[in-house]
Write a structure and sequence with these properties.
Blueprint (H helix, E strand, L loop, with lengths): L13 H9 L7 H11 L7 H8 L8 H13 L4 E3 L7 E3 L6 E5 L5 E4 L7 H4 L14 E4 L2 H11 L1
Parallel strand pairs: 3-5
Antiparallel strand pairs: 1-2, 3-4
Helix pairs in contact: 2-3, 2-4, 3-4
The site of one zinc ion (ZN) has 8 residues, from helix 6.
């Protein structure tokens, strides 16, 4: 029996499933896989620089420019989402489920907010008749639970 290696599992990854949906035309280099994998394991919506720092442990010869290229390719192919943050570096998200982003305006944390029911964005929002949705990016701003707690504490 060949020695079992946890890194070369034949189980399809989230990325493989996503790529199957997106179809051909998406070329996955080992670096793009690593970058996706790092993002998929992060729940804090890292910046390109954060991704670079995390992916370096697995691919020590990867450069920041390569990480930017991988993120760019994965974003345009629809495998990941870019999260726009005002006056700050873009962050990235590999959560493949339909969701929007909640931004805490006090600490800058970005969290995923999944819909409470199954919904189709093309049906949910009153879009111009006949419009076709390619991707949706909705941002909700406020205070995260921690900041909301601290805020009300400091007021009393
Ligand atoms: Zn997200
Ligand atoms: Zn906060």
């Amino acid at each position: 029996m060949p020695p079992a290696s946890p890194k070369s599992s034949t189980k399809p990854t989230g990325l493989d499933c996503r790529m199957a949906v997106l179809g051909a035309g998406v070329r996955l280099t080992p670096h793009r896989r690593e970058v996706f994998q790092v993002l998929a394991e992060s729940t804090d919506h890292p910046t390109a620089y954060d991704v670079f720092n995390r992916v370096k442990d697995r691919s020590p010869n990867i450069s920041l420019a390569t990480v930017y290229n991988c993120l760019e390719h994965l974003t345009t192919s629809g495998a990941i989402k870019q999260v726009h943050v005002e006056r700050s570096q873009a962050r990235y998200c590999a959560n493949l489920r339909e969701h929007v982003h909640f931004h805490c305006d006090s600490c800058g944390k970005v969290s995923d907010a999944l819909p409470t029911t199954d919904f189709d964005p093309a049906q949910f929002w009153q879009l111009p008749p006949g419009a076709r949705v390619q991707n949706a990016s909705v941002a909700i701003h406020g205070q995260c639970p921690d900041c909301a707690k601290n805020h009300s504490k400091s007021r009393h």
